[in-house]
Structure formats: C-alpha cells, structure tokens
Amino acid sequence: MIEIARARREAGLARRPHELIDIVGDPAAALGRVLAQEVSTDRDYPPFNRAIRDGFAVRAADVARVPARLRLIGESKAGAAFEGELGAGECVQIMTGAPVPRCADAVVMIEYARPDGDAIVFERAGRAGDYIVPAGSEARWNETVLLRGTHLGYAELAMAAQVGAVRPQVYARPRVAILSTGDELIPAGDAPSLYEIRNSNSISISAQCALSGAEPIRLRKASDQKAELRTLIAHGLQEDVLILSGGVSAGKYDLVEDVLRELKAEFYFDAVAIRPGRPVVFGVCRDKLVFGLPGNPVSTMVTFEILAAPALDILGGAAPRPLAFFKARLKYEITEKPGLAHFLPARVAFPAAKESSRAPGDSAVDATVETVHWQGSGDIVALVNANCYLVVHEKEERIPAGTWMDVMPRRGFF
Ligand code: AMP
Ligand code: MG
After folding, report:
1. CA of 388 to the centre of ligand 2 (A)
2. What lines the ligand 1 site, CB under 6 Å?
3. Reported confidence tier of residue 237, pLDDT bands at 50, 70, 90
4. What distance in angstroms lies between residue 297's CA and the mean position of ligand 1's atoms?
5. Whose CA is nearest to atom 8 of ligand 1?
6. Given the CA of residue 199, which atom of ligand 1 is nearest to it?
C-alpha cells in the first residue's frame, strides 16, 4: 500500500505521453531522450561469423604444426564474402569485419603469413576460434538490448540504429517552468546600474534542465512582492514542475515559501543540511512539484544538481541517476564546519600516467583534488575556476592532506 500522493504521481507517470523520435533524421535531438519501449535485435549480432583481424581464414587443424603451406583459393572482405567452402589444405585471404568462409574455424594474422607462389606459408600455429566472433555471440535475434527507461546516450543511439529501431517511442520531456525572483534582477542582456544584478540563474537552470532531458520554460522574473509572486507561481504551476530561485532564506523580502503556503503547498522539506544551498525547499502545490532553490548562483546550481535533477529523471521516465563520486587525494588540508555536507568548488587533476610507473598506490599517478579559493555561494567565478565539487561529509571537520576524498563531477563537464 502506498500513500495517495505517491499513487497519484505514479499514475501521472503511467499516463505520461510518449512520442516518436527520428534517430536518423536528427541524432543530436535524440541524444538524452528516455526510451518508453524496449529495443530488441532484428537478427543475430554479429549476423555472421566475423573476422576481427586482417589475415587468412584457415582450418585450425591445418596450422596446428608450422610452418604450414596452404593453397590460397580466394578472398573475403567486408560486404563481399567468399561464398565457397574451405577444403583441407586451403586458405582464404580475409579482412577485418569480413564473414569467415564455411568450414574455416580460425583466422591467422597477416603478420604470421607470407606468400609463396599460389600458396601461403604460415609461421605461427593457430587454434580453433582464433580471431573469430561467432554469429549471435554479442546478441541473439530478438534479444532485448535496450530497456524501457534507458537514457539514449551515444552508445545507446548506435545500438538502436544498428538494430534498425530508428523511430523509437520516448517519453515526453518534463516541462519545467523557471521563475527567478528578486527586485535587483534584470535580464542578462541588459546593462545593469550599480545595484542591479543580471539574472544568470534562469540561464543556468535552463541549461541544467537540458542536461536532465527536461524542457525549460522561462517566465519573466518576479519582484519580491506577494501579489506578483502569486500570479507568476500560479502561471508556472501549469507546467509539470516549477523551479524558483531566490527568496527562500529568512530575510524580510524572502517571500516564496509564504506565498507557496498560501497556495496550499505541502512541503517535503524547507531546509537541507548542505552547503551551499541550505534553505532549499521542495513541495507539491496544485499537484505539481515545486522547488524553491536559493538565489545565490552556486547554491542554485548545486541544489539543482543534487535535488532537482533526480526528480526530473523520474518525471522523464528514467531511474534517477545516482550521485557519482570518484576518489582523489586531497592536496592541502582543509577545515570545514561539521554538521553539513559540503560541496566545495574544487579542481581535480589527473596526472599524465606513465604506463611503466602505474602501480596500485603509486602516488605519482593518483588523481589529486584541491579546493579553489571562493567567497561563498554567490561566487560563480570560483565555480568556473573549478572542474568538480569536493564532497566533505557531515561528520568531517579537519581533513589532512593526502586523504582520499569523494569528488563529484559537474554534470556534463567530464
Ligand atoms: P536570495 O536567495 O534571493 O536571498 O538571493 C541571494 C543572492 O543571490 C543575492 O545576492 C541575489 O542578488 C543573488 N541572486 C538571486 N537571484 C539571482 C539570479 N536569478 N541570478 C543571479 N543572482 C541571483
Ligand atoms: Mg532575493
């Protein structure tokens, strides 16, 4: 049994509209869409026994002992097979990707063969199966290769194209209304007076929506006045999700939460133990999801990535992508206030590893991470000087240099 709000959301998702996309017509537009159907193979993969080296198709028994001299009877290339059968004592020249002739069971690389009149002399023994990928060994005919809910990345698009599923059903992209709040905000294309601030959050939120497969719909900005906020919020609630920025802290002109309450929003949370981004709010209003992200640009971006992106994944028909952390060694000691999870703008460096020196625990090839200097959650300069977030967990305080740390990539950056 599940509670009614969740059941209603599930039902809403089941009804989510599907649409057809055209992978061949516009592969770039298909990128990042989420499959609403399974994709299966229309034949075996590979469809024939495929050679994976340039060389000669042979009967392995004929090259069990070397040197061996086999009569050359033809060639097989990609797109044009040798149609005959390979007899004992014979070989066929074969190219990478070409079908292996009937009765051949090994490919010997060209490097180990030399021509000798109408024959080829093999210098190295071969075994049955060498350099042949058998028909159907990657996937059988009618085997499911892409599940419903799969994000179409470049590999998935190649897979769909390769099995001829060129017009798959995908979920409609969630529509996200974006509402920036603040008396000081002006459109980013305008020239600001001293105390005016260009509205960059509506740009970063739009871009992050796109990275999450959602469709951003920007509303005009709202001033810090209840009546105007009420009108624009009501407008935004016509879309699948409303994402506000600014006006959620404890200041006198932070009115977003009040207005949402007046509109009978139910909140799941109105603060999170995270820095930057502590005052972030999330709730349901008129059956739509609403995020109130803090207005400081770095807070806005971090809270979107951590809290709004998973909701958009689910609404878009996919499983939420997990927060992906990797490990790097801390370059310099840091001290952070405990009790909050910190996502600090940081730079990770992957030293160019010499293959010869690569060994487990070899610190010369470990990734290292250092925080960038920052003035807090308003500092976009710091974020563009960074290439990742250094994650400092709630209980940590003073962390010595050399510690293995969790590092979170910026979505779409690495
Ligand atoms: P607030 O969360 O409304 O208190 O705003 C915190 C800080 O973020 C203030 O310095 C605002 O000027 C700034 N800010 C708020 N909204 C935006 C926005 N849309 N674009 C850029 N900066 C903003
Ligand atoms: Mg404000």
Report:
1. 27
2. 180, 182, 184-185, 197, 199-202, 245-247, 249, 251, 254, 294-297, 378
3. very high
4. 7
5. 296
6. 20
Predicted pLDDT of residue 16: 74
Q: Where are the alpha helices (DSSP H) in 121-189?
A: 154-162
- Contact partners, residue 5, CB within 8 Å, separation at least 6: 266, 284
Residue 4 binned pLDDT confidence (cut-offs 50, 70, 90): confident
Over range 233-238, report the average pLDDT: 98
Residue nearest to atom 7 of ligand 1 (CA): 296
Rounded distance from Cα 210 to ligand 2 centre (Å): 25
SS3 content of the chain, % helix, strand, coil (to 5): 20, 30, 50
Task: Tell me whether residue 365 is exposed, middle or buried, using C-beta atoms within 10 angstroms of its C-beta: 0 to 12, 13 to 18, 19 or more.
Answer: middle
Cα distance between residue 149 and residue 163, in whole Å: 18
Structure tokens at 93: 């020249």
What does pLDDT average to over the chain?
94
SS3 72: strand
User: Distance from the CA of 180 to the center of ligand 2, in angstroms?
Assistant: 9
The per-residue pLDDT for range 283-333, each reduced to its tens digit, is 999 999 999 999 999 999 999 999 999 999 999 988 888 888 999 999 999
**Residue from 190, 245, 254, 280 whose mutation best tests the ligand 1 pocket (most atoms within 8 A of CB):** 245
φ, ψ of residue 132 in degrees (nearest 5): -125, 130
Q: Which atom of ligand 1 is nearest to the CA of 279?
A: 2
Please give the distance, rounded to the nearest whole angstrom, from the Cα atom of residue 200 to the centre of ligand 2: 13
Q: Please state the pTM of the whole predicted model.
A: 0.89
Higher pLDDT: 363 or 57? It is 57
Query: 249-253 — which CB contacts under 8 Å span 24+ positions?
Result: 249/279, 249/294, 249/295, 250/279, 253/183, 253/224
For 85, counting Cβ atoms within 10 Å of its Cβ (0-12 exposed, 13-18 middle, 19+ buried), the class is exposed
Residue nearest to atom 10 of ligand 1 (CA): 296
Ligand 2 centroid to Cα of residue 353, in Å, is 47
Reduced 3-state DSSP string for 252-310 = CCCCHHHHHHHCCCEEEECCCCEECCCCCEEEEECCEEEEEECCCHHHHHHHHHHHHHH
CB-CB contact of 23 with 161 (8 Å):
yes
* Residue 388 and residue 369 in contact, taking contact as beta carbons nearer than 8 Å: yes
